[in-house]
């Protein structure tokens, strides 16, 4: 066993690669259930796990690893119920979205007064910042993907992401293509390099956002304000490589005055300058994890002429230097 790996009965984790391997069959009934609940808490935050027959042998298996900023797991389990309550959310620092795709069996996911019923190939999302209940009707297999909030909502407007939770996405069209990719990622072996896994992780979020945008109806049409904000975000995203991109340029491309753009963005609790730096740092995170570019080259690719300015901004928004961020996530 490598020095950076820790053994917990049937559980193996590797700190540098977020590897999880757990087989409850290697443990007695009580210990297996405890390790299963601990693994859920380790990856997704505090949750309560219960079983219909808590005294009988618990047969389950978990294998997962990081794909850049995503964590992808293949899970097989006997019948169970998992609850994340408001108190658990307050006490837990975890945040993000969890995509759950059933590959065998049947489960129900309830959140925001909606229940998604999932059979083979179907998937649903939950927001880890909101209470939810996961209940399996029979023994099941599934793929679970943890996605940071900032990564998900950098591709998908928050309102659409929120509307997508606890809805059933059947394996048809775009969701079917995405489902095949998720199954392949969950079943991939250790031969795939970390940078390649990170690239696949980033592409997976792009595909998920596209699939949800295509298949999710959000009821009332976007307001003019929401359309204007989306247009501003798109202009910023398209121009991140340009170090001379200015706020007047963004406003003009969006068809509004600089003052109106500032008022529009300020109403969301942000500033246009803040949006620009945040978008550049999000793009830089992806480049740091999916390429071998130097920090200086990453800075230039996201529109910073001064690598020191880039590093200061990156540290202010993430709490880490670009180099430490890459080392900690690769």
UniProtKB/TrEMBL annotation:
What's in the keyword line of the UniProt record? DNA-binding, Transcription, Transcription regulation
The HTH araC/xylS-type domain covers 230-328
Which InterPro entries did the record assign? AraC-bd_2, AraC_XylS_family_regulators, Homeodomain-like_sf, HTH_AraC, HTH_AraC-typ_CS, Tscrpt_reg_AraC-type_HTH
Q: Return the PROSITE patterns for the record.
A: HTH_ARAC_FAMILY_1, HTH_ARAC_FAMILY_2
State if Transcription is listed as a keyword: yes
**One MF term in the entry's GO annotations:** DNA-binding transcription factor activity
Question: Per its UniProt record, what Pfam families does this chain match?
Answer: AraC_binding_2 (PF14525), HTH_18 (PF12833)
> PANTHER family from the entry?
ARAC SUBFAMILY, HTH-TYPE TRANSCRIPTIONAL ACTIVATOR RHAS-RELATED
| Protein name stated in the entry | AraC family transcriptional regulator
Native source organism of the sequence: Gordonia aquimaris
Q: What is the lineage of its organism?
A: Bacteria, Bacillati, Actinomycetota, Actinomycetes, Mycobacteriales
